[in-house]
Amino acid sequence: MPNETNFQALVDHNYILDVTETGSLKLFFQPVDHFYHRNFEVLAQVADFLSQNTNLPFYRMIQTKTGQYTLEVNGIPSILMAFPEERNAPAVPIGTMLAGFHRRSQGADIRYFPESPFYSRANVLSGRIDALEAKYKELQNKKERTAFEKGFISNFLYFSGCAENAIQYLVDVSIDYPNPEPIVLNHYRFSGADSLIPENPALWVADDRSRDLSEWLRLLAWNGEAHGIDAAADAFLDDYENQFPLSSQAAANLFGKLLFPLSYVECCERYFFSTGREDRHLLNELMRLNEERAANHEHILYYLSRRFQEIKVPEWIVSPQA
Question: What residue ranges carry the coiled-coil annotation (predicted)?
Fold first, then answer.
């Protein structure tokens, strides 16, 4: 990114800003490759609309003098962003805030967001687990294995079984509900208030709303104790559904996404396929934690089967007391 002098020169030369804003406007360049979707004009329009129709603060995307959103900055295609005006964060629960954001963004036209995983999810997930299965078979013939590889060999069948169940489950949901609900804007990886305040269009993902819900419940299961998960999940979903109730279709998609062992798969992909230098000790610990948290993962699935009794669930999802 440019230094302060060059930054101001770039802005002055390429943008026309409201003179009433320049005194307090805080700006920064965000590289284009930070954006999940690349239809910048639509993202900017949606951000402006939502900023006027919700209580959440939003980053604004600013056009150049020529009406474009991208500008080469030190050879990096970037977009000038404006920090939101100072405002107090809404004093409402996370579930309430998220429901309001989803409800306001419902009906986003998926034709504007070709990167959306909405129609390709099952195929993509299947490809990811197939790649790990090939690695599993390869390691069967390896005489000396690392600590991570030994853990992978011992637990892959369990986690791959969960993944295959999830993929088939999501396929079945698409058959059972041939008319999908309108998509909403989600977040690449929803992590609570930090994802909502402020809202960043770069991290939006056009998808069904169970994406964000599953991410938050996955975090609850990962970080919580088994005896407290139900109460935390109830509070979050109650707050959400008071604003935007879940249909049986949305509940089924939520269950299917949570059934897929995303953290485990990502951990293994980082170890086996990452082109960067990964911390092997950190990945060994993450593998151990995935095994340790498996019981919590099953617990949250059982919780959902009880909360949404109208959805189908695999037979092995049983009460933790059973």
Answer: 122-149
Query: Which residues does residue 186 pair with via DSSP β-bridges, in sequence order?
Result: 205
Output b/e per residue, 236-259; b: 16+ Cβ within 10 A: bbebbeebbebeebbbbbbbbbbb
Please give the full DSSP string across 79-102, using - where no structure is assigned: EEEEPPPP-PPPSS-HHHHHHHHH
Task: Calculate mean pLDDT across residues 194-200.
Answer: 93
Total length of the chain: 322
Of the candidates 64, 66, 63, 69, the one whose C-alpha atom is nearest the C-alpha of residue 31 is 69
What the chain holds in terms of domains, given with CATH numbers, is 4-88 (3.30.200), 110-307 (3.90.1200.10)
Q: Determine the pLDDT at residue 54.
A: 85
**CA 112 vs CA 6, 70, 138: distances in Å:** 34, 18, 41
In angstroms, the CA 116 to CA 160 distance is: 24
| The pair of three-digit structure tokens given for residue 17, joined into one six-digit string | 């800003």
- Cα–Cα distances in angstroms (integers) from residue 228 to residues 87, 235, 249, 318, in the given order: 33, 11, 27, 18
* Residue whose C-alpha is closest to residue 259's, from 192, 189, 168: 168
What is the pTM assigned to this prediction?
0.92
Amino acid at the residue 20: T
Q: Helix-strand-coil percent breakdown of the chain, rounded to 5? A: 55, 10, 35
DSSP letter string, 273-305: H-SS---HHHHHHHHHHHHHTHHHHHHHHHHHH
Strand partners, 76: 73
Please give the single-letter amino acid code of residue 254.
Answer: L
Peptide bond preceding 198: is omega within 30 degrees of 0, i.e. cis? yes
Whole-number pLDDT of residue 277: 75
User: Of 252, 250, 253, 259, whose CA–CA distance to 316 is shortest?
Assistant: 259
